[in-house]
Write a structure and sequence with these properties.
The structure holds two protein chains of two kinds. By secondary structure, chain A is an all-alpha fold. Chain A is 71% helix and 0% strand. Chain B is globular, with a radius of gyration of 27 Å. At the A-B interface, helix 1 and helix 3 of A face helix 8, helix 9 and helix 19 of B.
Chain lengths: 112, 834
């Protein structure tokens, strides 16, 4: 008996990791712009930005846990295995991209 | 059944008629070739314009062209190469090859493909003719405001760009939706996602990028044209607008566009290299991950085109880091190709020359890209010829060399012959040497300080010999391209004759007659083992004899199979529409609307727009099947229902991805509102906004009623009753919503022409009204199709599509009207800031 096909909804996971990266970039850019426009002090703006970044890292972590919990059994549907591997690597790549592109910038002067 | 008899039966169903009937063509092979041929014509025109600029700049103090002519020539050169050559060429390749590579007979919406082509042709013609009449766009291919506003560009030059390019973009968007749906739903039976040729992944990701990338530019063009035509000051700082909003909207499209051009060509490389390396592509999964990453990161770095506009360093660092890191997924692909070659037994032929040309050019362009990603260097090189050199290496090089590789690789599919080396090899070297001589010199002259977009320069600043060499290189490259054209023409007559599948490839486009028949496959291949493993030529005869799926003709239908998205299992029988003049007529009506807008005949614009909408509704009347059929045999003992009787039919997915594009446009509009609120000068306005709460609530309630009535019509249809009452109620509700929006627009304060605050409120309300209006078209179509017997409890797709549209309209209306109601509060916040 063949395994049931992977549901099409699973494909959303292919874009989920980098979707979180996009969300992090947009929120950080927006909060930073609002903070600077309303002259928030650096001592307040920087922690808010850090919190936004942290929230997105937590989301990626949660997604990773959820994804790992649905690992296909060995020898299972090869399409499922393929998608599982690709999704796992997009999550890893998105995490690394979030950390590298958005993390170090937070140490810079806020509104100069 | 014999192969010949099957061929005759299928050809009678699928063929395009002779003579004028060619104008009714909807077949992907015909339209794909037209796209590529038309794109090549625009490439030739754009190339001549490029050469004219090189003649002008070859020597200092040149008076070959006056400044105005030069401005028009370089602007149309850039616009044409990007919008009329690069993107449409990519689309042409996608339209022609994707169905064949994926083992299906056509795209999901052949009439939309044809409409896209005609829109492209007419839009491109408008831009080209403007050059002949001396009113061509003259503000650079990115049309920056305020230069392109009617204060500084009072003629129709900028309007030609805004309307012509938007026209072409509509074509691109329709094709993007079509590609996404076709790749996801129309593959060879058994072609699970892990067995899909890598070209399919590239096209899928590229098309999804197009769905999201084009709407911000379409919105920007609409807003700028509204400013120019009606005085709505979105980009005028004196009236609360901001010129930088245009740059944001433009580059939200412009940067991903580079990758939209590159990725399909990378897909071609990923298809060609394994064939010539005699081994499977190394790192299939890694490449899939890389192109997904590339697609996203390419969107998140649009600001690197705006490093000098005064954005705080912290924000610049986000985009600088992103711009550097985007090199990683690109490098993953490069190393995968190199590894494929290193681990294979490479053989040489003309396509491989261009592949190696690409490696050299793209590596150089990539490295200067990383240099420009670094903010301090960017500040130095900004607006200099270094940038011109960089983008020609990444856009022209990354497109031209793989394109020529692909051209030489797939030309035998059309001609049954391969290139004569005596011409093809010297042509390559002339193009390669000419390209590098032209554009490498631009790096140096840029570093010496030569700015972009100047029509001449003095003779004592040390730029003379570099410019002269660059111009000489341009002529060498042009001679090379000329030789390529001669070689291709010669190939048709004198090329080496080859049998089917001359390269011993494994993709399905070679498992068909040469040149391909209009039905592509006499029967659809079954993918049982990884598609990359079996030589296509071995399958061809069996497929021609009808031993695959759908190896027969039935009811005169153009049949192909719809499959499960992930597993590729047969799921539905898709019956495609036959040739029709409707796409041409609809595109002509659209072109009339565009031209009338260009010459300020607004009543005619409205009439032509309504005619266009009417023709779309009319097209719907000849779609689908007039009765329920239930499961029908498709071969190999499998029976599936027609697409009209399943939940996940292609139109359903097409509407979902259309709404993704629409949602991106809406998000861009919301972004624009907040951007002006926070960044534009002269806010708040002297007059405080005071939207009418009752009218806004009435509009929301009316849209909610329409959405609920759409559900009522579905329920009624399901129990066999008449849905017309519910449809009528939904129509009345939508008319009420439109009336409320029009009343709200009439009462917007400050007046939309006086301040951007009022203009953005009016734009948000207009968005809601337009969506309610389109909802009315859905309902009219439902009404007509119910009457024609094209809708039944089993064939309820029409009503489900309407429900989805009205749900989306109601949802976005809540956000848009909520934002309009919140404007007084947002303005008050601005007043309170220190």
């Amino acid at each position: 008996m063949s395994a049931p096909p992977v549901p099409p909804q699973r494909l959303w996971w292919l874009v989920a990791g980098f979707g979180v990266w996009c969300s992090a970039l947009v929120f950080l850019y927006a909060v930073h712009a609002i903070g600077c426009a309303f002259a928030w002090p650096a001592g307040a703006l920087r922690p808010v930005l850090a919190l936004v970044l942290l929230a997105h890292l937590i989301v990626i972590g949660w997604m990773w846990r959820d994804h790992w919990a649905t690992s296909p059994a060995p020898g299972f549907d090869p399409t499922d295995t393929f998608l599982h591997t690709v999704i796992a690597w997009t999550l890893i790549a998105a995490l690394v991209t979030i950390v590298l592109t958005l993390g170090p910038a937070l140490a810079l002067a806020t509104c100069v | 059944m014999s192969a010949l008899r099957l061929h005759r039966e299928l050809a009678a169903i699928w063929a395009t008629g002779p003579g004028l009937q060619r104008l009714a063509a909807v077949n992907h092979s015909v339209i794909g070739l037209r796209f590529m041929a038309t794109a090549f014509v625009f490439f030739a025109i754009g190339g001549v314009l490029g050469m004219l600029t090189r003649v002008q700049l070859a020597t200092p103090d040149s008076d070959f062209m006056d400044p105005e002519t030069y401005n028009q020539v370089f602007t149309v050169h850039g616009s044409m190469m990007l919008f009329l050559f690069a993107i449409p060429m990519v689309e042409g390749v996608a339209v022609y090859l994707t169905p064949k590579i994926l083992g299906t007979r056509d795209f999901a919406f052949p009439r939309l493909t044809a409409y896209g082509y005609w829109c492209y042709l007419f839009g491109g013609t408008i831009i080209t003719m403007s050059l002949v009449f001396g009113v061509a766009p003259n503000g650079g291919w990115f049309m920056y405001t305020p230069l392109s506003s009617n204060v500084y560009t009072p003629g129709i030059n900028a309007d030609v760009w805004l309307l012509g390019v938007t026209f072409v973009e509509i074509s691109a968007l329709t094709l993007a939706v079509e590609i996404v749906v076709s790749v996801l739903k129309m593959r060879a039976p058994g072609m699970a996602l892990d067995r899909m040729p890598i070209f399919g992944w590239y096209m899928l990701v590229t098309a999804l990028m197009m769905v999201v990338a084009f709407p911000p530019l379409i919105l920007g063009s609409i807003l700028l044209e509204s400013e120019r035509a009606f005085g709505l000051p979105f980009f005028d700082p004196k009236r609360g607008g901001d010129a930088l909003l245009w740059q944001h909207l433009f580059w939200l499209f412009g940067h991903p566009d580079v990758y939209i051009i590159f990725l399909p060509m990378a897909g071609a490389l990923s298809t060609i290299i394994p064939v010539f390396a005699n081994r499977r592509l190394v790192g299939y999964r890694a490449i899939v991950v890389a192109i997904i990453a590339l697609a996203f990161v390419s969107f998140g770095i649009w600001v690197h085109h705006m490093f000098t506009v005064g954005i705080p360093h912290l924000a610049l660092a986000f985009f600088s880091a992103g711009s550097a890191i985007v090199a990683v997924p690109t490098a993953v692909q490069i190393f995968a190709w190199l590894a494929t070659l290193a681990h294979g037994r490479p053989r040489w032929d003309v396509p491989m020359l261009y592949v190696f040309g690409f490696f050299f050019i793209f590596a150089l362009g990539g490295l200067t890209g990383v240099m420009l990603a670094i903010v301090p260097f960017n500040w130095q090189a900004h607006d200099s010829y270094f940038v011109v050199a960089h983008f020609h290496y990444v856009v022209a090089g990354a497109l031209a060399f793989p394109m020529l590789a692909a051209f030489y690789y797939w030309l035998p599919l059309l001609t049954g012959r391969t290139a004569a080396h005596r011409l093809a090899v010297p042509a390559f070297w002339l193009v390669f040497i000419g390209f590098n001589l032209t554009f490498f010199m631009m790096h140096l002259v840029g570093l010496l300080g030569m700015p972009r977009r100047i029509y001449t320069y003095p003779g004592d600043v040390g730029w003379n010999w570099l410019n002269l060499l660059s111009s000489v290189g341009g002529f060498i490259m042009t001679i090379g391209f000329g030789l390529v054209v001669i070689d291709v023409l010669a190939q048709f007559r004198y090329g080496r004759r080859v049998r089917r599948d001359p390269w011993r490839a494994t993709t399905f486009e070679w498992a068909m007659p040469i040149p391909p028949a209009p039905y592509a496959f006499a029967s659809l291949p079954q993918v049982g083992t990884p598609a990359d493993d079996t030589e296509a030529g071995e399958r061809a005869l069996s497929l021609a004899r009808g031993e695959g799926y759908l190896g027969f003709a039935r009811n005169g239908w153009q049949e192909t199979l719809g499959v499960h998205m992930t597993s590729g299992a047969p799921e539905q029988l898709i019956v495609l529409p036959r040739p029709t003049y409707l796409p041409l007529c609809t595109a002509l009506a659209t072109a009339t609307a565009v031209l009338a807008m260009l010459f300020h005949f607004y009543a005619l614009t409205l009439a032509a727009a309504l005619l266009t909408a009417g023709l779309f509704v009319l097209a719907g009347q000849s779609a689908g099947l007039a009765r329920d059929y239930g499961p029908l045999p498709v071969g190999h003992g499998v029976s599936v229902p027609p697409h009209t009787e399943v939940a996940g039919a292609p139109p359903w997915w097409a509407l979902i991805f259309t709404l993704v594009a629409d949602g991106t446009l809406f998000a861009s509009l919301v972004f624009g509102t907040f951007y002006l609120w926070i960044a534009a000068p002269n806010w708040p306005a002297a007059v405080t906004p005071a939207p009418d709460l009752k009218l806004a609530l009435a509009a929301i309630v009316a849209l909610a009623v329409a959405a609920a009535a759409a559900r009522g019509s579905m329920r009624m249809l399901a129990i066999g009753g008449s849905a017309r009452g519910w449809i009528g109620l939904a129509m009345l509700a939508l008319l009420a919503a439109i009336a409320a929006c029009v009343a709200l627009i009439g009462g917007v304060t400050p007046p939309p022409r006086e301040h951007a605050l009022g203009a953005t409120a009016a734009a948000l309300l207009f968005y809601v009204a337009v969506h309610a209006g389109i909802g009315l078209l859905f309902l009219v179509s439902n009404f007509l199709r119910l009457g024609a017997g094209l809708v039944s409890p089993l064939r309820s797709l029409d009503l489900r599509l309407t429900r989805l549209w009205l749900d989306y309209s109601a949802m976005t209306a809540v956000i848009a009207l909520g934002l309009v109601l919140a404007l007084p509060w947002l303005v008050a916040m601005l007043g309170a800031r220190p």
